[in-house]
Amino acid sequence: MSIVLEARQVSKSFGGFLAVKNVDLKVHEGSIHALIGPNGAGKTTLFGLLTRFHSTTSGSIFLKGEDITSKGPADVALRGLCRSFQISSIFPGLTLRENVRVALQRRHGSSHQFWQPSRVLRRFDDDADRLLDRVGLRPLADRLCSEVSYGRKRALEIATTLAMEPKVLLLDEPIAGMAAGDIPMIVELIRSVAKDRTVVMVEHNLSVVESLCDRVTVLVRGELMAEGTYSEIRDNPAVRQAYIGAGYEV
Ligand SMILES: Nc1ncnc2c1ncn2[C@@H]1O[C@H](COP(=O)(O)OP(=O)(O)OP(=O)(O)O)[C@@H](O)[C@H]1O
């Protein structure tokens, strides 16, 4: 299996504090790869480095073999590496369809053209409906985003990210804060969108990681502690100790 995304010895320092230290990461094409670790381990920072929202202090990032270390987030998104935009970038006063339409306009470089006649904007509606269908939200297309459940907002967030046509999709804690009843819906959605792309996810819920992920990378205090299948990771004494030491049940 080929490597689609790779970090080589990446580090990130915030004002002298090393949040990520010399981390190596290889993500196989077509896999679902989890980044796990106790709070403050550097998972979100590593995500920011991979997607170029953070500059690296040292080390290199490669996407499909191309060095993207000096590229910006918009550039790598156009190359197919996209992170979910989080609910904060969803517009509560717009309908679900309009939210996806804005994301499609962003993809096509016309999101700032608010002055366009609505009939021109509507050309995106068919694509928006297809994406809503993909995440099970098509029946709610005309509902205001503010009116739907948190779980559905997270599904919408995935739809708006799919609008960027990612080949590698990075999801930051996709089930965080979600009601238990909504979790199976998002788990199935991630499994489904991963059929034709690579997914990298930061996730605290280890049973979700176990059921979804082919590979797991464990970060502890900014450093790579272990990498392997979920069962290899689960049985690794150093990983268990790091989690127990941080107050987790394993
Ligand atoms: N912009 C920043 N400025 C200063 N320190 C930061 C910044 N971002 C993160 N850190 C620090 O870097 C360390 C790693 O943070 P990060 O958010 O990457 O961890 P995490 O593994 O994602 O944690 P969590 O699971 O709690 O979200 C933490 O000690 C955090 O306080």
UniProtKB/TrEMBL annotation:
- SMART domains with a match to the protein in the record: AAA
Report the domain of life of the source organism: Bacteria
> CDD domains per the record?
ABC_Mj1267_LivG_branched
In terms of Pfam families, this protein maps to: ABC_tran, BCA_ABC_TP_C
- Where does this protein come from, organism-wise? Microvirga splendida
Q: Provide this UniProt record's keywords sorted from A to Z.
A: ATP-binding, Nucleotide-binding, Transport
Q: Where is the ABC transporter domain?
A: 5-246
Q: Which GO terms describe its molecular function?
A: ATP binding
Q: What is this protein called?
A: ABC transporter ATP-binding protein
